[in-house]
Design a protein that fits this description.
This is Pyruvate, phosphate dikinase. With 371 residues, this protein is α/β, with parallel strands linked by helices. The protein has 18 helices and eight strands. The longest helix is centred in the N-terminal third of the chain and has 26 residues. The structure holds phosphoenolpyruvate (PEP) and magnesium ion (MG).
């Protein structure tokens, strides 16, 4: 439980009076959301829903969903997951009390959901009424050489739309429950991960609108909501003007954007990158501070292209860089609307945002000069 002193609050108050950037937190558990609020987060900028699926009470149904070869089988498993997922969002919406909550649709590393051990395979075989050999073949069919460059993010929602449908239903049902009890209606921002093309977002957006209509008709009420996307692939940044036609907001996923721009695995970054930084081959670890020349250029392109299509397009960042002061300085210069970082980095981000606003006021940076 964070204890915040009076001096700390005074300092933060000054920072808040100066900064322009909003500060949100990346959070998916009630504890994280609670901590984020205590540290002054002004919303959730990234709720990674895949983390919710590893709960021991649900992983069986998750495996059943992934391993089923029929839509009917997947829907049976999803029906078991819906109440869990609805409760997840009810809790988050209650804690965030009307502040914006960006919920990202499932972006699993699929291999982490696949059953590997014999007993896991046997369990999922029993739940699907399938034999072990079929399950082994299915697991082999689904496994990929490069899962991080594979069947993840919105690609999964293209091939198995019923998964996103369950999540979207859970979001709206939860929002309606909390709106009724609190009078402060949650405004969900539904975020589609790993979009590379406009068509992917269009398909997802249409699906979200369709599910919204269904749930609103059943409940006899409506909820305001927004649909946006992560910009975390170079292609998405380059075609951001087209993607923006279907988006209410963009959030820069600078973890994946760094990985894909450098062609450098984020999971193996510790292997030789320190050598690069020590020798000055790279000035900084690009997974810590935004690489201005490459990743930063893509952020700038996406910002300009996105806002050329929609001048008021809301822009944020939710990669690890969202809590890094140097990167926050860059976000200020780009004119982003908010940064989102881990709950414990929120105070640092508030200070950094204030410093960035002051620095920017005395020396307007890139965004203004190139405008
Ligand atoms: C990102 O890629 O920057 C991001 C925020 O998403 P994740 O870290 O979950 O891939
Ligand atoms: Mg990502």
């Amino acid at each position: 439980e964070p204890k915040l002193s009076g001096d700390f609050e005074t300092l933060m108050g000054w920072a808040d009076g100066v900064r322009r950037l909003r500060v949100r937190a990346n959070a998916e558990t009630p504890l994280d959301a609670d901590t984020a609020r205590k540290f002054g987060a002004e919303g959730i900028g990234l709720c990674r829903t895949e983390h919710m699926f590893f709960d021991p009470a649900r992983i069986g149904a998750v495996r059943q969903m992934i391993m089923s070869e029929t839509e009917g089988g997947r829907r049976d498993a999803l029906a078991k997951l819906l109440p869990f997922q609805r409760d997840d969002f009810v809790e988050l919406f209650r804690i965030m009390a009307g502040l914006p909550v960006t919920i990202r649709l499932l972006d699993p590393p699929l291999h982490e959901f696949l059953p590997h051990k014999e007993e896991e395979l046997a369990e999922v075989a029993a739940s699907l009424g399938a034999d072990l050999a079929t399950m082994k073949r299915r697991a082999a069919d689904l496994s990929e050489a490069n899962p991080m460059l594979g069947h993840r993010g919105c690609r999964l929602a293209m091939t198995y739309p019923e998964i996103a449908e369950m999540q979207v239903r859970a979001i709206f049902e939860a929002a309606i429950i909390v709106a009724k009890e609190a009078g402060l209606a949650p405004v969900p921002e539904i975020m589609v991960p790993l979009v590379a093309t406009k068509r992917e977002l269009e398909i997802s957006h249409e699906q979200i609108d369709r599910v919204a209509k269904e749930v609103f008709a059943e409940a006899g009420t409506t909820i305001e909501y927004f649909v946006g996307t992560m910009i975390e692939l170079p292609r998405a940044a380059l075609v951001a003007d087209k993607i923006a036609e279907s988006a209410d907001f963009f959030s820069f996923g600078t973890n994946d954007l760094t990985q894909t721009t450098f062609g450098l695995s984020r999971d193996d970054a510790g292997k030789f990158l320190p050598f690069y930084v020590e020798r000055g081959i790279l000035p900084k670890d690009p997974f810590v501070s935004i690489d201005l020349e490459g990743v930063g250029a893509l952020v700038q392109i996406a910002t300009e292209k996105g806002r050329s299509t929609k001048p008021g397009l809301k822009l944020g960042i939710c990669g690890e860089h969202g809590g890094d002061p140097a990167s926050i300085q860059f976000c200020e210069s780009m004119g982003l609307d908010y940064v989102s970082c881990s709950p414990y980095r929120v105070p640092v981000a508030r200070l950094a945002a204030a410093q960035a606003a002051l620095a920017h006021a005395s020396a307007p940076a890139m965004a203004d000069r190139t405008a």
